[in-house]
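Model it.
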Amino acid sequence: MSKLFLTASLRDALGTNRLKKLRSSGQVPGILYGGHMDPTAISVNKLEMDKFLAENNVGSKVYVNLEGKEIMAFVKAVQKDVFGLNLLNVDLQALTKTDKVKMFVRLNFVGKDKLPIGAISQELASEIEVETFPDQMIDTLNVDVANLQFGDTVKVSDLPIMNDENFRIFTSPDLTLFTLIHSKAQSDAEEGETEATEPVTS
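Modeled.
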């Protein structure tokens, strides 16, 4: 996978009015911390950050170009307005190659188009918490549900990543992530078939 980059600038804008002015100029205030560096106030271009988040997730690894210095980091958190439209702030956590990072990985359930006709699927969790080294980081985990039958469930313990020595999983292995149930129409039809086959007694 090719490196993903963000360009950042140092900032000293503090206070509500100054932050509003910074945002109105097309910049998003943020903080870069961790990785044996002091917390550093930064700003990133809003269009660049919006594009990054449209193609990636919170938790994605990114290389920050800060005043000509390249820093390996990941998107720790973002804050948006009450409508969830405009970025207000971004937290970037700097990384070192030898330090493990604890993060949430988004689940992507694939193969739903191959599930039995009439089935109702329930996605009961959207992410799991893991720990790994920076060179092993992932922001999305595909979970194949194509072969599930009615009544089947997928738990954390069923995920192949549980057996990957590069990852430590913090989410409970007993947590149910996905389940497949009968549709109401099918359940009613089966109940009707059962009643139709019951012997009639006088």
